[in-house]
Amino acid sequence: MSAATPAPSPGLPAGSSSASRLPGTWAQALLLSRYQFRDYLRSRRFILMMSIVGVIGAIITLVLYHYNGAGLSGSADAFYGSLWGGGVYVVIIFSGIIFGGDAIAGEFQNKTGYFLMGLPIRRTSVYAGKFLAALAASLVATVFYLLILVANGAYYLGAGAVPLALLESFGIMLLYLLALLGAVFLFSSMFKNSLYAVLVVAVLFLFGFMIIVALVVGLVKTEPWFIIDYARGVISYPFDPVLPAHVMTSRTFGGGTTTSYNPTYPEGFAIMIGYFLLTAIAGLVLFEREEFT
Amino acid sequence: MAPSLEARSLTRRFGTFTALDHLDLKVEGSKCVGFLGPNGAGKTTALKMFTDLIFPTEGEAFVNGVSVQANRKSALSSCGVLIETPEIYGSLSPREALEMVGALRGMERSEVRARTDEVLAEVRMTEWADEKFGRFSKGMKQRVNIASTLLHDPEVLLLDEPSTGLDPRGVAEVRDIIRGLKQGRRLVFFSSHILSEVVDVCDEVALLNHGKLLFHDTLANVTGRFTSGVTEVDVEFLQPVPDDLVARSIRPIPGVESWARQDAQRLTLTIAGGPPVKSRVLEGLVGLKLGLVAFKESKNALEAVYLSQVTDGES
After folding, report:
1. By C-alpha distance, which of B189, B178, B108, B169 is closest to B150?
2. Phi-psi region of B299 (alpha: psi -120 to 50; beta: other; left: phi over 0)
3. Do residues B60 and B177 share a domain?
4. A118 and B54 in contact by Cβ < 8 A?
5. In this predicted model, which residue has the larger pLDDT, A10 or B248?
6. Which pLDDT value is given to residue A70?
7. Rounded to an integer, what distance in angstroms lies between the CA atom of residue A33 and that of residue A30?
8. Are residues B261 and B288 in the same domain?
9. Which of residues 207-266 of B touch A (CB under 8 A)?
10. Which residue of A has its CA nearest to B64?
11. Domain for residue B123, yes or no?
12. For residue A147, is pLDDT > 90?
């Protein structure tokens, strides 16, 4: 550092960065997301996420190879319905945990928030920017998973055997990803400790919601329309020739009956959109009120 | 409009503890203001409310007349902020981090590039410009943080103990930077525990204790008001100075009120009067041709004020 800081640069008078030239709230969110996404791409967590997808992809590939694709040939819908429709949610949950779990909590714990919040930027921009970055990073992971499946599909079913339903299902998956990230960001906003945030999100999404759905259906015998986990069933619907019945009753060995539920399309969409809107707004409100003490 | 900072009845309570108690303070113009106080006095709390990191229980903070609480974005647009030791995303380099700051501030790309080179040179981080932030020491991180506060050439600088984490050389360099910043049309407001640093660079001081503002005035007025113009000066000679010589030659110099011996060659003189009197005493001592080698205040005047005003504030 030199002994004398130079006077303001020529053409750059002190205070020239007036409020008038500041980008808008959403422009700042996009700018921030670009740098946050760059940070994600270079981080260990990204390598971890891609490794998880790689391992899942490798297991699928090995199993398919072992059974020589038995039962899949000629049925692209069945192939993608089971492996994409029935499996992509695992990738989404992991990416939500890894990219979103500490997205907000980390700003407090790692003190990166002190850097960002000293800038003329609304908290909404910070929240939205980090959300967009987590969304983009999660999409990279899901696209990687998709590419593994497409490569396997091309091997067993032929290069052209990519059904249109995959595109529809990808769109629904995007909606589920938005809803999940909304919920993850809400939990992340509740904590100032990254570990707690990640743990809560992991437990809830990997086991918690599943158990709640089972309890609600099994004990209370009510449709679990309020659980995000329930809604993800619609991701595989585009591959089904006939949609599953909304309510299914079957006999048990003891002579009784059990009831299971499948979400309808409108229900699934409504749950996911509802989760996204409610959790994103609630998370933002919490972040707006959170203090950097 | 001159750069300004204002706190109007700014108050913050944490449960029953009042961290900041109705702070009314206005600083305006191109100057450097030192914000002093013991640990827990409320300095950081006040600075955090000036930057909207925490919210006031009562009152409001203004930067250049814009309420931080009502419009943080506009209020902080002409402000450079350094609170605690912030972290930057570990995989970004200083150049990328400053690029991000410039973009978020709406600066042109070419402007950001030029200023990035300037401010990184300023904090001596040019050779690390493209290394990852995560690999840096605390001191290096703080240099980059300082660079980021200077990037847009702010009118107002809010610095919370900017020397934190720096080695002695870094501390001296930060002091030089702050001193240099005063040359521009800027208001520099910084908290510090290092009184010599404040004396060195500040025009005004504000002293906080137990969340209350004890005073805010120019450095000269503060020291004049609280020390009654009496200072103690340590003097050292090449050779031993016997008592009779001191009584005969030094004590009669106008302005010397009393003296005390430290050892054969060193004395402590109590001088009544401001800088002109001290200057005359120094001239008198030199005129005695006793081989005067040192003449410095025993403790700086601000330290004396601080110690007299902050009685039980340490926590």
Report:
1. B178
2. beta
3. yes
4. no
5. B248
6. 64
7. 5
8. yes
9. none
10. A15
11. yes
12. yes
B240: containing domain? 228-305
**If you measure CA to CA, which chain B residue comes closest to A28?**
B104
- Chain A nearest CA to B25, separation (Å): 21
- Which residue among B104, B107, B154 places its CB closest to the CB of A28? B104
Domains identified in chain A, total number: 1
In a domain, A15, yes or no: no
CA triple B188-B191-B193, angle to 5 deg = 135
The interface predicted TM-score (ipTM) is: 0.84
B126 and B254 share one domain:
no
Q: Would you state the structure tokens that stand for residue B247, as one six-digit string?
A: 């009584």
Residues 92-111 of A with CB under 8 A from B: 110-111
Position B312 in a domain: no
Put simply, the answer to whether A112 touches B101 (Cβ < 8 Å) is no
Please report which confidence band the pLDDT of residue A37 belongs to, taking 50, 70 and 90 as the band edges.
very high
Nearest by CB to A42, which of B91, B150, B152?
B91
Contacts of A67 (CB under 8 A, 6+ apart): none
Determine the pLDDT at residue A176: 95
Say yes or no: B16 and B59 in one domain. Answer: yes
Side chain identity at residue A110, one-letter code: N
Mean pLDDT by 10 residues, chain B (315 residues): 93 94 94 90 94 96 95 93 90 95 95 95 91 87 91 93 81 81 84 83 91 89 72 87 87 87 89 82 85 82 78 51
Rounded mean pLDDT, A5-17: 43
Q: What is the pTM of this model?
A: 0.85
Q: Are residues B161 and B76 in the same domain?
A: yes
Q: Which domain holds residue A267?
A: 24-289
Residues B57 and B206 in one domain: yes
CATH number assigned to the domain comprising residue B107: 3.40.50.300
How far A86 CA sits from the closest chain B CA (Å)?
Answer: 35
Q: Is residue B315 part of a domain?
A: no
The beta-carbon neighbor of B77 closest among A7, A17, A39 is A17
| Residue where one domain finishes, among candidates B219, B243, B277 | B219
How many separate domains does chain B show? 2
Boundary residue ending a domain (B165, B187, B219): B219
Q: What percent of chain A is predicted at pLDDT more than 90?
A: 55
Residue B310 belongs to a domain: no
Q: Is A261 within 8 Å of A223 (Cβ atoms)?
A: yes
